[in-house]
């Protein structure tokens, strides 16, 4: 399960008052995923995704990824668009954790993967690379060789105990 932070309807309604996304109708936790808490939010103006970033995410990296998503979306790449609140802030706080709201894109998980799906993924990766060639923001790779060595060492320690 990938819902690590519980949010009640009152907390969520208060949080949504800072946005111009309509009145909260319903919300449900998204159980797929491994890193963050995600909720599908339904309002009288549409559907959105609320992400609450959990402990493994370096919150200093969030602005980079929000800028990247805005850049990709502006270029027509099919990805969620980060949503600003009434104070023009994309990155906010909910339950004492960093939180964002992004647009909801309809879709579903593909269970029976066929060659055509692999081709489509390849096309998207190519398009992603073309679009991001002129994206000037940078960040350090959080999964570089030194980090992998540390992760590997922790795995060895766990297996030895």
Helix and strand topology:
Blueprint: H1 9-16, E1 24-29, E2 37-43, E3 46-52, H2 62-74, E4 92-94, E5 97-103, H3 115-132, H4 145-160
What does this structure look like?
There is one protein chain. The protein is of the alpha+beta class and 161 residues long. 34% of the residues lie in helices and 19% in strands. The protein is built from four helices and five strands, in the order αβββαββαα. The chain has helices at 9-16, 62-74, 115-132, 145-160; strands spanning 24-29, 37-43, 46-52, 92-94, 97-103. A five-stranded antiparallel beta sheet has the order 1-2-3-5-4, with helices on one face. A hairpin with a 7-residue loop joins β1 and β2. The protein starts with 8 loop residues before the first helix and ends with a helix. The model has no long low-confidence stretch (mean pLDDT 91).
């Amino acid at each position: 399960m990938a819902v690590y932070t519980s949010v009640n309807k009152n907390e969520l309604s208060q949080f949504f008052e800072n946005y111009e996304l309509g009145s909260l109708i319903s919300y449900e936790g998204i159980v797929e995923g491994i890193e963050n808490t995600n909720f599908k939010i339904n309002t009288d103006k549409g559907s959105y995704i609320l992400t609450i970033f959990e402990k493994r995410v370096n919150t200093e990296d969030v602005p980079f990824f929000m800028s990247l998503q805005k850049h990709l979306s502006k270029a027509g790449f099919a990805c969620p668009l980060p949503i600003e609140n009434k104070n023009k802030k994309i990155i906010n706080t909910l339950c004492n954790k960093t939180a964002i709201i992004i647009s909801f894109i309809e879709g579903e998980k593909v269970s029976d993967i066929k060659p055509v799906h692999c081709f489509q993924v390849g096309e998207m990766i190519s398009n992603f690379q073309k679009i991001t060639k002129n994206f000037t923001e940078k960040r350090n790779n959080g999964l570089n060789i030194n980090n992998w060595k540390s992760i590997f060492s922790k795995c060895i320690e766990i297996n030895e105990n």
